[in-house]
Design goal:
By secondary structure, the chain is α+β, with helices and mostly antiparallel strands. It contains five helices and nine strands, in the order H-E-E-E-E-H-E-H-E-E-E-E-H-H.
Amino acid sequence: MIMGYEVAINKAWEELSQYNIGKDTAVRFLGDEYSLEQEKKKVISLACNVPAKDFTAILILHYLAQKAKGLPALTGEWVSFKEMSGVEGYAAAFRKRAIEPVIRKYGSRPDGILSVLDRLPGKKVDQGDIGIVLEAFKDIPVLVTLWKPDDEFGPEANMLFDRNISQVFCIEDVVVMAGLVAGSL
């Protein structure tokens, strides 16, 4: 375990232990399902039967703790990363981890992103030139929009979240989750 994650993961397990979440807890995240081995303090990917990477495990533990407290109702209002409070200093990391990989992969052919709907929970929506909403976790939607290049501008992308996201995750978690969403596309 990388030392930087050790404190965070132990704190996340400690927080989660305050709730009675049951022995055989499983959670879907993007296209995979994860189970918790609480005694061993492990989050296991059921798709490949290996422990989740620490940053993924922390995100899952934070989600489950918030779910145990009660997830806020979806607002139906999309917000960009820049519109969230406390993002100062994280904008460059968000762009590098979440936006640039999407542009690199789908910038020249935005409609190619629709193929991810065959393996990830989501749907096509009428946003940008092409848009999809993925269900990262249950009741945690992520809107990915793409714009085709034109004579003046290159291709562009964005990732939007339901306004309630800041009641579920801290800014660091949003950056991690957005990076994992981009990587799954």
